[in-house]
Amino acid sequence: MRSSLTLSVVLAMMLGFTGGAHAQNEKPAADGVNDSFPFQLFQEIAKGKQKANVLISPLSVSTALGMTYAGAGGETKSALAKVLNFAPGATDEAINQQTKATLDSLREPGGDTKLEIANAIIGDKNVTFKQPFLDTNTKFFDAEVQSLDFKAPESVNTINSWVSKKTHEKIPTILSAIAPDAILYLINAIYFKGTWENKFEKSETREQNFNTAGNGTKKVQMMHDSRSDFRYMENDQFQAVRLPYADKRLSMYVFLPKENQTLLSFETNLSQSVWQEWMNHFRKRTGEVGLPRFKIADSMEMTSPLSALGLDVAFSEGRADFSEMVETAQRVFISKVLHKTFMEVNEEGTEAAAVTAIEMSVTSAPANPVPPFVMIVDRPFFIALSDEQTGKILFAGHIANP
Q1: 63: how many CB neighbours lie within 10 A of its CB?
Q2: Strand 283-292 relative to strand 250-257: parallel, antiparallel, unpaired?
Q3: Domain co-membership, 96 together with 180
């Protein structure tokens, strides 16, 4: 019989009512990572899902993979570096230092925004993990280290309780049970709570029709705001508006494909270079925005999308190399990646949550005045919740049926 162990890596991220206004000319930090990963991952996840709501947390997934990177070697380490877009030639020390700087920066967004980031390494007490792997995660990810008896029934409750506490109960559980051969869980939890810089007046919210992706129509509660200082852009394909949060650095971008365009064509064109080009074209405009209140939840398995991005070696039982993680002659490989998200948008702000579980196994301004714009988001649209200082995309998704 084949001998096997299972290593599970879990990342839980929570974002709540957020705050953030835009530093207009601020560039993303030169952190050895470019942000093509969020768009590449979203495109893979959204394939064939144009009629469904889709929401992912690229930051959640990349942080989980970053924690596994500390235990990877050989071809697997190279694949992770490529998928995560680490700068060619960047040393592990430089990558880890910038990861820590980014996480520390995100923990202090300013204003009244609350952004809590917590990491944990919870391992089976009967398994020995390599000290450099543990040290890297404690030093650069500020990970708490715990040992549990994974055969004890209460261990799954301990792990779920940690996730629930760190996400302020927005993510109550990540595990239904500990796999029989599980040896380790790496967990990251983020909680973020703030408000819009310019709240929507509840008195302006009214019932309107929304044309869903399934060619149906439903009634939604449409929030409205009219101002002279929106950051706005428009071209032949879409309208877009930036809705900043009160902490002066986080923003939600809403992209509404025009009526003669499709959400699929918009998303097919997404890339880091295109995104940056768009960011350079937002201008101060007077106008009216109508945005539906919405609450969505999503759940997905990410093994196939990540494999398609070039991480197939990490899922290969015969090729994966995580030899820097565990004191064993057996081969470690990723067997499953689970991802769950939640987001609610209302007049006050945004609340969102994400959980990623990675299961691994071991075996042998215009010059001339322009008229006011009107942007009523009454059909499927794309959103991205972005940190303007680091350039990180915390959430990305499309809303087909709010």
Answers
A1: 23
A2: unpaired
A3: yes
Q: What is the DSSP letter of 28?
A: P
For the domain that residue 250 is a member of, what is the CATH number?
2.30.39.10
Residues 113 and 246: beta-carbon distance below 8 Å:
yes
pLDDT at 59: 86
Is residue 32 a part of any domain in this protein?
no
Report the chain (402 residues): mean pLDDT per 10 consecutive residues: 38 33 34 70 93 90 89 95 92 94 89 82 87 95 92 93 86 83 78 87 97 91 96 96 92 94 93 93 96 91 94 91 84 78 87 70 56 95 92 92 92
b/e code 302-329 from CB counts within 10 Å (16+ = b): bbebbbebebebbbbeeebbbbbbbebe
DSSP lists the bridge partners of residue 1 as none
The pairing of beta strand 373-376 with beta strand 283-292: parallel
* C-beta of residue 340 within 8 angstroms of C-beta of residue 299: yes
pLDDT, residue 12, reads 37
Scanning the structure block, which residue is given the tokens 């929106």? 230
Do 124 and 149 contact (CB within 8 A), yes or no? yes
Biggest CA–CA distance in the chain, Å, is 76
Q: Which amino acid is at 349?
A: G
CA distance 242 to 251: 6
What sign has the CA pseudo-torsion 94, 96, 101, 105?
positive
Quote the pLDDT of residue 359. 62
Whole-angstrom distance, CA of residue 21 vs CA of residue 377: 21
Domain range enclosing 120: 5-26+37-195+295-362
**Quick one: pLDDT at residue 254?**
97
Q: How far apart (Å, rounded) are the C-alpha atoms in residues 199 and 164?
A: 28
Looking at residue 116, what is its pLDDT? 85
CB 126 within 8 A of CB 134: no
Burial class (CB in 10 A: 0-12, 13-18, 19+), 34: middle
